[in-house]
Predict the 3D structure of the following.
Amino acid sequence: MEIRWSDLDPNQHLANSAYMNLMSATRMKHMVTNGVSYGDLKTWALGPVVLREQIHYFKEVFPGKPIYVSQEVSGLSEDGTFYEIRHNFYNHKGDNFARGIMTGTWIDMNTRKITPPHTEIIEKLMRKDRCDDFKILDPKTMRLEGVQPINIDLGNLN
Protein backbone atom coordinates (compact mmCIF):
# COMPACT_ATOMS: atom_id res chain seq x y z
CA MET A 1 0.00 0.00 0.00
CA GLU A 2 1.09 3.56 -0.58
CA ILE A 3 0.81 6.31 2.01
CA ARG A 4 -1.27 9.11 0.54
CA TRP A 5 -1.06 12.82 1.37
CA SER A 6 -4.47 12.56 3.07
CA ASP A 7 -3.06 9.81 5.36
CA LEU A 8 -0.67 12.27 7.05
CA ASP A 9 -1.18 14.26 10.23
CA PRO A 10 0.31 17.70 11.09
CA ASN A 11 3.56 15.97 12.12
CA GLN A 12 3.85 14.72 8.51
CA HIS A 13 3.77 11.04 9.47
CA LEU A 14 1.01 8.44 9.15
CA ALA A 15 -2.02 9.65 11.11
CA ASN A 16 -3.83 7.55 13.71
CA SER A 17 -7.03 7.46 11.66
CA ALA A 18 -5.07 6.23 8.62
CA TYR A 19 -3.96 3.12 10.53
CA MET A 20 -7.61 2.26 11.21
CA ASN A 21 -8.55 2.87 7.58
CA LEU A 22 -5.68 0.67 6.37
CA MET A 23 -6.70 -2.10 8.78
CA SER A 24 -10.29 -1.94 7.53
CA ALA A 25 -9.22 -1.95 3.87
CA THR A 26 -7.00 -4.97 4.55
CA ARG A 27 -9.88 -6.88 6.16
CA MET A 28 -12.27 -6.08 3.31
CA LYS A 29 -9.72 -7.07 0.67
CA HIS A 30 -8.97 -10.30 2.56
CA MET A 31 -12.69 -11.08 2.73
CA VAL A 32 -13.28 -10.62 -1.00
CA THR A 33 -10.02 -12.36 -1.99
CA ASN A 34 -11.06 -15.40 0.05
CA GLY A 35 -14.47 -15.76 -1.54
CA VAL A 36 -16.85 -13.73 0.62
CA SER A 37 -18.23 -10.85 -1.43
CA TYR A 38 -20.29 -7.81 -0.52
CA GLY A 39 -23.11 -9.55 -2.41
CA ASP A 40 -22.81 -12.55 -0.08
CA LEU A 41 -23.13 -10.28 2.95
CA LYS A 42 -26.21 -8.68 1.40
CA THR A 43 -27.75 -12.09 0.62
CA TRP A 44 -27.11 -13.25 4.19
CA ALA A 45 -28.27 -9.86 5.60
CA LEU A 46 -25.05 -9.80 7.60
CA GLY A 47 -22.58 -7.06 8.39
CA PRO A 48 -19.20 -6.95 10.16
CA VAL A 49 -19.06 -4.61 13.16
CA VAL A 50 -16.00 -3.16 14.88
CA LEU A 51 -16.36 -3.25 18.66
CA ARG A 52 -12.95 -1.73 19.37
CA GLU A 53 -9.55 -1.12 17.81
CA GLN A 54 -6.23 -0.75 19.56
CA ILE A 55 -2.99 0.31 17.91
CA HIS A 56 0.52 -0.04 19.26
CA TYR A 57 3.04 2.29 17.61
CA PHE A 58 6.69 1.26 17.44
CA LYS A 59 8.18 3.91 15.14
CA GLU A 60 7.19 6.64 12.72
CA VAL A 61 6.53 5.99 9.07
CA PHE A 62 6.54 8.55 6.28
CA PRO A 63 5.31 8.68 2.68
CA GLY A 64 7.49 7.79 -0.26
CA LYS A 65 7.91 4.04 0.18
CA PRO A 66 5.30 1.26 0.15
CA ILE A 67 4.04 -0.25 3.38
CA TYR A 68 2.61 -3.71 4.01
CA VAL A 69 -0.28 -4.62 6.29
CA SER A 70 -0.74 -8.22 7.41
CA GLN A 71 -3.81 -9.90 8.84
CA GLU A 72 -4.16 -12.85 11.20
CA VAL A 73 -7.10 -14.23 13.15
CA SER A 74 -5.97 -13.97 16.77
CA GLY A 75 -9.23 -14.99 18.45
CA LEU A 76 -12.68 -16.41 17.76
CA SER A 77 -15.64 -17.37 19.92
CA GLU A 78 -16.89 -20.96 19.63
CA ASP A 79 -19.79 -19.98 17.35
CA GLY A 80 -17.85 -17.29 15.46
CA THR A 81 -19.99 -14.42 16.74
CA PHE A 82 -16.97 -12.57 18.11
CA TYR A 83 -13.56 -12.39 16.49
CA GLU A 84 -10.23 -10.67 16.90
CA ILE A 85 -7.96 -9.71 14.01
CA ARG A 86 -4.31 -8.73 14.38
CA HIS A 87 -2.69 -6.47 11.82
CA ASN A 88 1.04 -5.82 11.62
CA PHE A 89 2.37 -2.84 9.70
CA TYR A 90 5.74 -3.15 7.93
CA ASN A 91 7.85 -0.60 6.09
CA HIS A 92 9.64 -1.26 2.79
CA LYS A 93 12.53 -2.90 4.69
CA GLY A 94 10.27 -5.31 6.58
CA ASP A 95 10.52 -3.41 9.87
CA ASN A 96 7.38 -3.77 12.01
CA PHE A 97 6.40 -0.18 12.80
CA ALA A 98 2.93 -0.76 14.32
CA ARG A 99 0.47 -3.44 15.38
CA GLY A 100 -3.29 -3.10 15.44
CA ILE A 101 -5.85 -5.35 17.07
CA MET A 102 -9.50 -5.17 16.08
CA THR A 103 -12.25 -6.89 18.02
CA GLY A 104 -15.46 -7.39 16.09
CA THR A 105 -18.76 -9.16 15.77
CA TRP A 106 -21.50 -9.70 13.19
CA ILE A 107 -24.86 -7.96 12.99
CA ASP A 108 -28.08 -9.20 11.41
CA MET A 109 -28.93 -6.32 9.07
CA ASN A 110 -32.68 -6.89 9.49
CA THR A 111 -32.95 -7.21 13.26
CA ARG A 112 -29.86 -5.03 13.98
CA LYS A 113 -28.82 -7.59 16.61
CA ILE A 114 -25.51 -9.40 17.12
CA THR A 115 -25.65 -12.81 15.44
CA PRO A 116 -23.39 -15.72 14.57
CA PRO A 117 -22.05 -15.48 11.00
CA HIS A 118 -22.94 -17.65 8.03
CA THR A 119 -20.93 -20.91 8.02
CA GLU A 120 -19.05 -19.85 4.87
CA ILE A 121 -17.53 -16.92 6.78
CA ILE A 122 -16.10 -19.27 9.39
CA GLU A 123 -14.80 -21.69 6.76
CA LYS A 124 -13.37 -19.13 4.32
CA LEU A 125 -12.15 -16.41 6.68
CA MET A 126 -11.74 -17.62 10.25
CA ARG A 127 -10.33 -21.16 10.06
CA LYS A 128 -7.12 -20.15 8.31
CA ASP A 129 -4.51 -17.44 8.75
CA ARG A 130 -4.57 -17.90 12.52
CA CYS A 131 -1.68 -16.55 14.58
CA ASP A 132 0.49 -18.77 16.75
CA ASP A 133 -1.13 -17.48 19.95
CA PHE A 134 -4.73 -17.84 18.69
CA LYS A 135 -7.29 -18.01 21.49
CA ILE A 136 -10.94 -18.95 21.94
CA LEU A 137 -12.90 -15.84 22.91
CA ASP A 138 -15.49 -15.85 25.69
CA PRO A 139 -18.58 -13.89 24.56
CA LYS A 140 -19.20 -12.77 28.16
CA THR A 141 -15.94 -10.82 28.18
CA MET A 142 -16.23 -9.19 24.75
CA ARG A 143 -17.59 -5.93 26.11
CA LEU A 144 -15.18 -3.81 28.14
CA GLU A 145 -16.08 -4.30 31.79
CA GLY A 146 -17.26 -1.14 33.49
CA VAL A 147 -17.56 0.82 30.25
CA GLN A 148 -21.16 1.94 29.94
CA PRO A 149 -22.78 4.83 28.04
CA ILE A 150 -23.52 7.98 30.04
CA ASN A 151 -26.29 10.09 28.54
CA ILE A 152 -26.57 13.84 28.99
CA ASP A 153 -29.48 16.27 29.06
CA LEU A 154 -29.00 18.40 25.93
CA GLY A 155 -31.16 21.10 27.49
CA ASN A 156 -28.33 21.83 29.93
CA LEU A 157 -25.81 22.64 27.20
CA ASN A 158 -25.05 26.29 26.45
Remarks:
- The chain is about 20% helix and 35% strand.
